[in-house]
Amino acid sequence: MVNGDPVAVDGTLPKPGSTAPDFTLVGAGLVNLTLRDFAGKRKILSTFPSVDTPTCASSVRKFNAEAVNLANTVVLCISADLPFAQARFCGAEALDNVRALSAFRNREFFTNYGVAIEEGRLVGLAARAVVVLDTENRVLHSELVSELSHEPNYAAALASLK
């Protein structure tokens, strides 16, 4: 939902117990990164529409603060924002405990992870969701946030790593 209005989202959110689909996303320096680039680490994948919205920015800040307490875990903040905008935001906010990744070259990531907004003014962007993976890329937790303006259930996501 966006402001209480239903919005169609394409794809299927990975379910706990399943293996996460591989991906290719763009990191700093316009370098392609895949799920394999984070091998051996636990992963929190946080998807959202844009770092230039208040709720999205708040979510990135929250995960950045929590990341310092997470052993062998990388937090991947994923949006359609260009890597330049992501770097500007993270730099201005001194957010160095998360990795910003862009789907601008591979929008199929959004469908593969069940977060592709497919109608309305936000078509082409990602819905807000959190998928937590173990070191073998098995899904420990997944949440598609029901209202785009709400933040995810951080406690549930973090508890899945204990």
Q: What do these coordinates show?
A:
- The chain is an alpha/beta fold.
- The chain contains 4 helices and 9 strands; from the N terminus they run ββββαβαβαβββα.
- The relative contact order is 0.26.
- The mean pLDDT is 94.
Topology:
Blueprint: E1 9-10, E2 24-26, E3 32-34, E4 42-47, H1 54-67, E5 73-79, H2 83-93, E6 98-102, H3 108-112, E7 116-117, E8 129-133, E9 139-144, H4 154-159
Parallel strand pairs: 4-5, 5-6
Antiparallel strand pairs: 1-7, 2-3, 4-8, 8-9
Structure described in brief:
With about 160 residues, this protein is of the alpha/beta class. Helices cover about 20% and strands about 25% of the residues.
Features:
about 160 residues; alpha/beta; 5-stranded mixed beta sheet; two-stranded antiparallel ribbon; about 20% helix; about 25% strand; globular
Rg, rounded, reads 14 Å
Report strand order across the widest sheet.
6-5-4-8-9
**Secondary structure: helix percent:** 10-25%
Strand content: 15-25%
Number of strands: 9
- Distance from first to last alpha carbon: 30 Å
Shape: globular
| Unreliably modeled segments | none
Look at the structure and give the mean pLDDT: 94
| Major β-sheet profile | 5 strands, mixed
**What is the element string, with H for helices and E for strands?**
EEEEHEHEHEEEH
By helix and strand content, what is the structural category? alpha/beta
The DSSP helix count reads 4
